[in-house]
Design brief:
Blueprint: H1 2-13, E1 16-20, H2 27-42, E2 46-49, E3 78-82, H3 94-99, E4 103-107, E5 118-121, H4 128-140, H5 146-159, H6 170-181, H7 186-194, H8 199-209, E6 213-215, E7 220-226, H9 227-232, E8 255-262, E9 265-272, H10 278-284, E10 288-289, E11 293-298, H11 302-314
Helix pairs in contact: 1-4, 2-4, 2-5, 4-5, 5-7
The chain binds manganese (II) ion.
């Protein structure tokens, strides 16, 4: 927690903060950035969240607060990156961040490069939101309530799949319990995150699961989606994110792969069961992430991406 005391000092020493999430923001990213924003405002600081409103996935709109968004050309004296493992993951302001004197990073990726001046990287935290909780409740002494609590809880619930992934610790659940005690709308948040789909989302599951192939004696399962399919249905990539865990959930599968072809790039999401560390596989191809969930983007066609990732998985399976 030493590093969180440095974040506390960083907050005390500055007045006007840019809070920056990662590209393709997920629940942990959006919830953590908002949690930080509510906290900084409670402390009487100026702060803005540098995530474009249109990049916030549909299923996270329920916690989004339009008044947190930074205006174009706005100046900041300090920058806080959240849930970003490297400088290349920053969704916006990457040039300003690189040039700035006062930068901090709060993250839980084991692969974090320590790219900010002040780094609070806690790999044992199941979510960046869990670290935001400790920072608020234990270090700064602000009890998260109301919208702030909902945002942090959403972050934790998102990255733990509802407290069910192996990254969930007793401390994670204590943070969750404390947020519940302070009035978080847990059932509503779970319903929004995991139990609400559009008809289009349900329909596209069939198209995507029909691409399923099995490899290495059923230990690896691969599915894919293309931008052409999504365009034909007038859907966005984040609307199929909920399918990412599906290949891994097949009995006997140790690594599940979801390929998303977009233009001349393929984004690869890896999920593992109990044995394989997919963050290593991702890192060997220039990506990153966690032991059980990682990703890479390759500049190539779909077939080539599939072949490349299968070769890499074959080495460790
Ligand atoms: Mn995260």
């Amino acid at each position: 927690m030493m590093s969180l005391n440095e974040i506390k000092k960083f907050i005390e020493d500055n007045d006007n903060f840019a809070i920056i999430g990662h590209a393709n923001p997920d629940g942990d990213c959006v919830g953590s950035c908002l949690g930080m924003w509510y906290m900084l405002r409670k402390l009487g600081k100026c702060a803005d969240v540098c995530i474009n409103s249109e990049d916030v996935p549909h299923h996270l709109k329920f916690i989004w607060n339009n008044s947190c968004s930074a205006k174009d050309g706005q100046q900041f004296d300090a920058y806080i990156a959240i849930d970003c493992a490297g400088a290349d993951r920053l969704s916006t302001k990457s040039e300003e961040f690189a040039a700035a004197e006062r930068t901090a990073c709060i993250d839980h990726h084991r692969t974090n490069t320590g790219f900010a001046k002040v780094n609070a990287v806690i790999p044992d935290a199941a979510a960046a939101g869990e670290i935001i909780y400790y920072l608020a409740a234990d270090i700064i002494g602000i009890t998260p309530i109301g919208e702030m609590a909902d945002a942090i809880y959403t972050a934790i619930v998102s990255d733990t799949g509802g407290f069910k992934y192996s990254s969930t610790t007793a401390r994670t659940m204590r943070a969750g319990a404390s947020l519940l005690e302070n009035g978080v709308e847990s059932a509503l948040i779970f319903k929004n995150l995991f139990d609400t789909y559009t008809k289009k989302q349900i329909d596209i599951v069939g198209d995507i699961t029909s691409t399923l192939t099995m490899h290495f004696n059923g230990k690896v399962a691969v599915i894919y989606v293309t931008d052409e399919l999504l365009e034909s249905k007038n859907m966005r990539f984040d609307e199929v994110d909920f399918i990412t865990n599906l290949p891994r959930s097949i009995e006997g599968v140790e690594v599940g792969v979801f390929l998303k072809k977009r233009g001349d790039e393929v984004k690869i999401s890896l999920r593992s069961g109990e044995s394989v560390d997919v963050s290593q596989i991702a890192a060997s191809l220039g990506g990153g992430g966690h032991m059980r969930a990682a990703g890479i983007t390759l500049k190539c066609c779909l077939d080539e991406a599939k072949e490349t990732i299968l070769k890499e998985i074959e080495k460790v399976i």
